[in-house]
Amino acid sequence: MSKVLEINSLNYKKNNKLILKDINLSLDNGKIIGLLGANGAGKTTLMRLISGVNAKTSGQIAVAGVDSKAARKSCVSATYSLTSFNKGAGEKNTKVKDVVKFYIDIYPDFSFEKYQAMAKFLEIPCDDKLVNLSTGTGEKLEIALTLARQVPLYLLDEPLNGVDIMARKKIIKSIIQWKGDDSTIIISSHYVKEISSLLDDVVILKDQTVYQVSPVEDIQAKYHLGIEDYYEKVYEGGLDDE
Ligand SMILES: Nc1ncnc2c1ncn2[C@@H]1O[C@H](COP(=O)(O)OP(=O)(O)OP(=O)(O)O)[C@@H](O)[C@H]1O
């Protein structure tokens, strides 16, 4: 199986503070991977380093074999906060369809057809202003925009935050439905139980580094625990390795 992501000896410091240390990660193509970790563990930071938004302090990151920061950006589609579309004066009238047009204009790999199918399923209105979208609809829009690009690697950072149970279920269904066989999705979420049915593998961040990378079925076979219970035990330090 080909590797979609290879990270070697990655370190990241911000304002002299070590945020991530000695990250080593090698992920196969075609999977859905849960990136789990407590608040502040570094999930968002790691995603920003992979997508090339943040610059690493040291180490190597390659996505689908591509390691330059600029080239990596065209291999990765990451959820991007919509609030930045409303920052400038006079930008309060930005509509959903304006953001879709922006994506079409800047990403040659953006599939409007795929976006439309997802927008229909997720009931995303195209004429509404961004400022008027509910939190859940905003999250749905971020997911649809992100998955409508055709790239090897998708990064979904907390896509279920502030979203009600019905919308969470719909977002999870849409991720399953629109993930291509040749692509990989890394998803971070504190709703571990809800996303567990999606996941092939989990990556757990703890103490500023990768604590574990494992197929979900290996964890279930070895510990006889669901992912949520296993993850809690990792953080509580209560795992019996027998
Ligand atoms: N601009 C910054 N300057 C200094 N420290 C930062 C900065 N951004 C993040 N950090 C620190 O980096 C660490 C990792 O933060 P990050 O947001 O990546 O964690 P996270 O796992 O995504 O957390 P959460 O689950 O709360 O979203 C935290 O200790 C945070 O305080």
Helices and strands in order:
Blueprint: E1 3-14, E2 17-28, E3 32-36, H1 43-51, E4 58-63, H2 69-72, E5 76-78, H3 96-106, H4 112-122, H5 135-148, E6 153-157, H6 165-178, E7 184-188, H7 192-196, E8 201-206, E9 209-215, H8 216-223, H9 227-236
Parallel strand pairs: 3-7, 3-8, 5-6, 6-7
Antiparallel strand pairs: 1-2, 1-4, 8-9
Residues 14-15, 17, 19, 37, 39-45 line the site of adenosine-5'-triphosphate.
Give an account of the 3D structure.
The chain has 242 residues and is of the alpha/beta class. It has a domain of 165 residues: P-loop containing nucleotide triphosphate hydrolases (Rossmann fold), CATH 3.40.50. Helix content is 36%, strand content 25%. It contains nine helices and nine strands. The strands form two sheets. A six-stranded mixed sheet has the order 5-6-7-3-8-9, with helices on both faces. It has a three-stranded antiparallel sheet with strand order 2-1-4, with helices on one face. β1 and β2 form a beta hairpin. It is globular. The mean pLDDT is 91. Adenosine-5'-triphosphate binds next to β2 and α1.
Which features characterize this protein?
242 residues; 25% strand; binds adenosine-5'-triphosphate; alpha/beta; single chain; three-stranded antiparallel beta sheet; six-stranded mixed beta sheet; 9 strands; Rossmann fold
